[in-house]
Amino acid sequence: MTSLDSVLDQDGVRLTVDDAVATVSLTNPAKRNAQSPALWRALTAAGRALPGSVRVVVLRGEGKSFSAGLDRQAFTPEGFDGEPSFLDLARGSESDLDATIAEYQEAFTWWRRNDIVSIAAVQGHAIGAGFQLALACDLRIVAEDVQFAMRETSLGLVPDLTGTHPLVNLVGYARALEICATGRFVHAEEAERTGLANLVVPADQLDEAPRDLSAALLAAPRDAVIETKALLSGAVSRTFEDQRTAERAAQGRRLRDLAGVTD
Question: For position 4, what pLDDT does the model report?
């Protein structure tokens, strides 16, 4: 049994584990948890370091903001210490640039693994990369002061940290385009109404609400949750008939397992 074990603490990311629940915290509130390549590598490392006993992962940001997005230092000629600047990356080959962006994206992909359910607890600003990190999770609980915005287009860029797929799935193409192209803020009421947020709570309840949701998720048998998540996450890309087939196969596995039948 683990209890509040600190598994990782580096580059603005802390991973702690309490039995079946892990918490990933962004720990640089002085910079509103601005993101950098080093932070993305730490997030990737956190995903790889999860013990097999973990079923729920809560993502949170310390301080008044969840994450204000990419640290603008990335766009300066000097960049970050020990890192190539984004300007230098842009001057390299297309294949190298593609490989680098793919590496950055790894920090945003593991949150939807079928063996875990991830919950983002979001307060204050969640801008650009911060918005995309919240979108990387399965579920989002937000404080009443939350401000989502996708500002990449306003900077002449595009959202490239895996946020476009979940955004379109949650709010639809037309609203996703409008949110991204204008860079406007999405506040708590709209976030809940459009499906971006599962729950809106007062800021002083943002620690308690994920604990309650985690407990509810842990009440169901793990294998049933894993199979259900796989069914739901694949439903959008399947035809109705393919989804029926997937349901039958999943239920067959569950029934055989409950009956103790082995192949």
Answer: 63
On whether the CB atoms of residues 218 and 225 are closer than 8 A, the answer is: no
Beta bridge partners of 8: 15
Check residue 88 and give its pLDDT.
84
Q: HSE of 41 in the Cβ direction (CA atoms, 13 Å)?
A: 7
Looking only at the bridges linking them, the beta strands covering 21-26 and 56-61 are parallel
What are the tokens at 53? Answer: 């006993």
**Burial of residue 198 (number of CB atoms within 10 Å: 0-12, 13-18, 19+):** middle
Q: CA 181, 185, 188, 190 torsion: positive or negative?
A: negative
Cα 225 to Cα 26, 149, 165, distances in angstroms: 27, 31, 23
Cα of 39 vs its chain's centroid, Å: 14
pLDDT in tens, 153-199: 998 999 999 999 999 999 999 999 999 999 999 999 999 999 999 99
| Cβ pair 201, 144 in contact under 8 A | yes
Length of the chain: 263
d(CA 137, CA 111): 5
For the stretch 56-108, pLDDT in tens is 999 999 999 999 999 988 888 877 888 878 888 888 899 999 999 999 999 99
pTM: 0.93
Provide the pairing of β-strand 56-61 with 5-10.
unpaired
